[in-house]
Amino acid sequence: MVRRLSTCVIALAVVLEAFGHVAGPTRHYTTLSVGSPANHVAVIGDSYTTGTVEGGRGPQSWTSRAWAALARQGVQVAPNVAAEGRAGYDVPGDRGSVFSDLTARAVHSDDVLVVFFGSRNDQGAEPELLAEKAREAFDLAHRAAPSARLLVIGPPWPTADRPAAILRVRDVIADQARAAGATFVDPIAENWFVDRSDLIGADGVHPNDAGHAYMAAKIVPLIRAQLPSLV
Predict the structure, then answer these.
(1) Three-class secondary structure assignment of 59-87
(2) pLDDT (tens digit, 9 = 90+) per residue, 66-118?
(3) Where are the domains of the chain?
(4) Which of 27, 32, 180, 221 makes a 20 to 30 Å CA pair with 39?
(5) Residue of 21, 33, 40, 47 marked active site
(6) Which residue among the candidates 21, 40, 206, 212 is catalytic per the annotation?
(7) Would you place residue 37 in the very low, low, confident or very high pLDDT band (cuts 50, 70, 90)?
(8) Known catalytic membership, residue 47
């Protein structure tokens, strides 16, 4: 009976998280389990996290898929996702937020991990200002959740022909992440999506549902490796 209740609550947490991408106050969702406390995880991102008309909406998003995959592995997560299309560390998104704004909404004192993902939207930012804005977001996360680890995933690019602007964004974010003591992951160096046009929507930019499943498969072990109960 306890195991059945735990399974039901985990499923409910995943469904609720899928609706956490819409406008409104962010919430923590508590996952119940026996002998395994929930790990509170915050995620900050752009349209690669919110999903778009190309794919990744609701339960198809990489975040929803990640929580479900971790639950199947016996890892309990209480997620809080704050993501906004077109947003970056320096560039405001569709609702006027930058990553530091999203950090203020998503991160809480009991978080054990804060994940930043992106952003290709910062290509027009001046490097010095981008560095300042990234540092501000990471510092804010540290202050809000002093015990949390930071996992910073740089911007992916769907082809092997990367413009100089996106490489500058990657390098600035990587430098600031390492200075903040974060673990930095470089999707560009790891060739995420390269030669995988089947994972990108018709717009040539955003992942489709298969692309979100691909991202979840990449990100789940990164998250799991950072959770304190497992290291």
Answers:
(1) HHCHHHHHHHHHHHCCCCEEEEEEECCCC
(2) 999 999 999 999 999 999 999 999 999 999 999 999 999 999 999 999 999 99
(3) 2-230
(4) 180
(5) 47
(6) 206
(7) confident
(8) yes
Name the CATH topology of 2-230: Rossmann fold (3.40.50)
Q: Is 142 a catalytic residue?
A: no
Give pLDDT tens digits for 155-210.
Answer: 999 999 999 999 999 999 999 999 999 999 999 999 999 999 999 999 999 999 99
